[in-house]
Write a structure and sequence with these properties.
Distance between the termini of chain B: 66 Å
Mean pLDDT of chain A: 91
Number of strands of chain B: 15
Mean pLDDT of chain B: 89
Number of strands of chain A: 0
Number of helices of chain B: 17
Low-confidence stretches of chain B: 10-14, 16-30
Oligomer: heterodimer
Distance between the termini of chain A: 40 Å
Structural class of chain A: mainly alpha
Largest sheet of chain B: 4 strands, mixed
Strand order of the largest sheet of chain B: 2-1-3-13
Low-confidence stretches of chain A: none
Largest sheet of chain A: none
Structural class of chain B: alpha+beta
Radius of gyration of chain B: 25 Å
Strand content of chain B: 5-15%
Largest interface: A-B, 34 and 38 residues
């Protein structure tokens, strides 16, 4: 009887131990570090300083601009990835022979390692050697090369496009699968009843794919906010901090200045943003289920 | 019955665990002094260097069967993060091949150990083989932390001989004023008179630091513990960059063009001059080198030195220095590997191959006819005792990697016209000082 009562606890315990070891403990440790003034190069600096690191981080104009840019990055990349992914996904969902081939080919940007994507685009966008500038000049849109990644005004925009390029294939494939599940009879009935294309999409098709759409939207926003490799490879957060988002800034602190107290604060901030996004997802998903 | 089975399982589990643990201990402790496995991480390098490192390592293995080398090569740009991450994860190589500039931070983080603490006699014996000025560059706080194999020096100037002749110029520029004048004369539409670089990669910053040191600047006023990059030595050097940019005689994308792009522009005949390091363009441009008539020389000196320090002829850094890590279980065996590299036969690999083009650390390399043929000026200066005269290390102090990016941002701000040279460097110095004070208070 006693064994029967304790068996579920025994069976669940390893999972709890693993979750604690690999998720809860690192979070608790990061939280603890954020209340210290720890610099890895300075022995003895791992001492409690209250909210001093928080005060320092949140009064630093560079950090505030990085946070603002993180939000812009996340919103812009997510929105553009979804819009383009949905459009491409819709066409991929059609039962055309060529789509079998396209569905296989389109995945390439997604499967490329971010470091490869970053390197490829760094060269493609280069002001002198880049193929993008060459094409734009050939069609007379510009008359001389633009250093897309070399100017603060264009660098973030260029990197947003790179991230969108990387996200779109997976978004398109996921949504194309959802589109394939839409009832064609209902859409056809709508057409016969006089609904135009826009109305058919929003009133008949979109409600059917909404659950997938919400999941994809949240996944994409999480991919985006976790991304630092492409940016780091392409610009290292420059020029003049113009492409730094929280993950790249955290990486810079980790590898260059070792200000772990501040790194802890920024990691907690990043975590809160992720939690916020996830909560939005959970609420939206629950609403869908109801 | 079930309880007995559970107990038995627990006992077996612990017994197996203990056996595995004991086995691991036995293996770790089994190596006698100077024997065992040594893991090596090599990062970056010119293609020919990347090719010969494992070959030399195999040669070592053949001569020293008591030491088993596990050699790994990684992309150069991840050097610091790979080493620091490896140390934190307790998964670090026994020997790492890194930059001399990394030494203060790695020593401060206790990632690497002084080599003379492992075997002072062996380390002292290297002095017979290695140029003293180069050997000193890998010393930190009186201890030898690395074995240098060569140094890269900055600043150097590469210039196109055809352009020079077409512009009616007799020889390369010798002063900063002449740099501006020559760049203007050789400038053509879509083909800049001079290629510069100003990304955040350390080599770009080292090149600029070489110019500033040459103008009597220093990164740090060591006696006062003050960051000195906003003093005239650095400010006027940055103004030189700004003047060239504003005159429209440079490549248009300095903030995205790193040293490799600068080299490629020059090597592909897309720029008349280029500011680089001692290796100049050779390792970095791909083909058609035969069609290019060019020469390299030390970068011109300022018309009037404006910095407060002794002008340094050049800055130098050994960018493939072998270091032994604190997690190394067989330091004596690792030192054998370093000792192998410290011998003339290995150090001579940097003696005269144009594709590699480093300033050799080995004394014997300067007697090689190949080096005399490839870089006669270096050999001549070395024999006269002036090749390293007035050369100093690139900035090296605890926390330098944390403050150097501030200099990079200042360069970009001034070049992009977001601030004057003085304003940009004032801001950078303030941020760098704050960080420096945290570490040194």
């Amino acid at each position: 009887m006693r064994v029967k009562r304790h068996l579920p606890i025994v069976l669940i315990a390893p999972v709890f131990v693993l979750i604690f070891a690999f998720i809860a403990y690192p979070m608790i440790e990061i939280l603890r570090i954020s209340f210290t003034g720890w610099n890895y190069l300075k022995p003895g600096s791992d001492t409690f300083v209250g909210f001093a690191s928080y005060a320092k981080v949140f009064s630093d104009p560079v950090v505030l601009s990085v946070m603002g840019r993180t939000v812009i990055w996340m919103v812009a990349t997510t929105a553009l990835s979804i819009i383009l992914g949905m459009a491409i996904g819709y066409y991929l969902s059609q039962d055309w022979k060529i789509n079998r081939f396209l569905r296989a080919v389109i995945i390439i940007p997604w499967i490329l390692p971010p470091v490869v994507s970053g390197t490829i685009w760094k060269w493609m966008l280069h002001g002198t050697f880049g193929v993008v500038n060459d094409m734009l000049m050939r069609v007379h849109i510009i008359d001389q090369g633009i250093p897309w990644l070399g100017r603060p005004e264009t660098a973030l925009l260029a990197l947003i496009m790179v991230q969108v390029w990387k996200n779109v294939p997976m978004v398109a494939l996921l949504l194309s699968a959802a589109f394939q599940g839409v009832s064609l009879e209902m859409v056809e009935a709508g057409r016969i009843d006089g609904a135009n294309a826009w109305q058919r999409f929003w009133r008949l098709i979109f409600p059917d794919i909404r659950s997938t759409f919400v999941v994809v939207a949240v996944m994409v926003s999480i991919w985006c906010i976790q991304q630092y490799v492409i940016i780091w490879v392409a610009t290292q957060g420059g020029p003049i901090n113009s492409t730094h988002i929280l993950p790249t800034y955290i990486f810079q602190i980790f590898t260059q200045s070792y200000q772990f107290g501040e790194l802890g604060v920024l990691s907690i901030t990043n975590l809160l943003i992720l939690v916020g996004v996830t909560l939005v997802y959970i609420r939206a998903f629950q609403r869908e289920r109801r | 019955m079930r309880q007995r089975f559970g107990l038995l399982a627990l006992v077996v589990f612990f017994a197996v665990g203990l056996a595995v643990f004991a086995g691991g201990q036995k293996e770790a402790g089994a190596a006698t002094e100077g024997t065992g496995t040594v893991t090596v991480w090599k990062m970056g390098g010119a293609p020919k260097e990347v090719a010969f490192w494992p070959v030399v390592t195999d040669k070592f293995s053949a001569q020293h069967p008591e030491v088993k080398i596990k050699y790994n090569y990684f992309y150069g740009q991840i050097r610091r993060s790979k080493i620091i991450g490896g140390y934190q994860a307790d998964h670090l190589a026994d020997v790492v091949v890194a930059f001399g500039q990394d030494i203060p931070d790695f020593a401060g983080l206790r990632i690497i150990v002084p080599l003379d603490d492992i075997d002072a006699d062996t380390v002292n014996s290297w002095k017979d083989n290695i140029v003293p000025e180069v050997f000193d560059v890998t010393m930190y706080r009186g201890k030898q932390y690395a074995l240098p194999t060569y140094v890269d020096m900055a600043p150097f100037l590469a210039y196109n001989l055809d352009d020079l002749e077409t512009a009616g110029l007799g020889g390369p520029p010798e002063t900063w004023s002449e740099v501006k004048e020559y760049a203007a004369k050789m400038n053509k539409p879509n083909r800049p008179g001079i290629a510069l670089q100003a990304t955040l990669v350390p080599v770009d910053l080292n090149i600029f630091e070489g110019i500033a040191f040459n103008n009597g600047g220093r990164f740090l006023d060591e006696s006062a513990g003050e960051i000195a990059i906003n003093r005239s030595g650095f400010v006027d050097s940055l103004q030189l960059y700004v003047d060239l940019v504003e005159a429209g005689v440079t490549n248009g994308n300095l903030t995205e063009d790193n040293f490799k792009v600068g080299a490629a522009l020059f090597g592909e005949n897309k720029a008349a001059m280029w500011i680089g390091m001692s290796w100049l363009i050779t390792p970095w441009f791909g083909k058609d080198v035969e069609g290019l008539r060019w020469q390299g020389t030390a970068f011109p000196t300022p018309d009037r030195v404006s910095g407060g320090y002794e002008p340094a002829a050049a800055v130098m850094d050994p960018t493939a220095a072998l270091m032994i890590t604190s997690t190394c279980k067989n330091p004596k065996a690792a030192l054998k590997y370093l000792d192998f590299w410290a011998q003339p036969e290995q150090l001579n690999l940097w003696g005269g191959q144009k594709e590699i083009c480093r300033v050799p650390a080995g004394k014997a390399a300067y007697d090689l006819p190949e080096l005399a043929e490839a870089w006669p000026q270096w050999v001549e200066l070395y024999k006269k005792g002036t090749l390293f005269e007035g050369a100093v290390s690139v900035p090296r102090f605890l926390g330098v990697t944390g403050v150097e990016p501030e200099l990079g941002k200042a360069l970009q701000k001034a070049i992009l016209g977001k601030a004057s040279a003085q304003e940009a460097l004032d801001e950078a110095a303030k941020a760098a000082q704050e960080y420096y004070d945290i570490l040194h208070e």
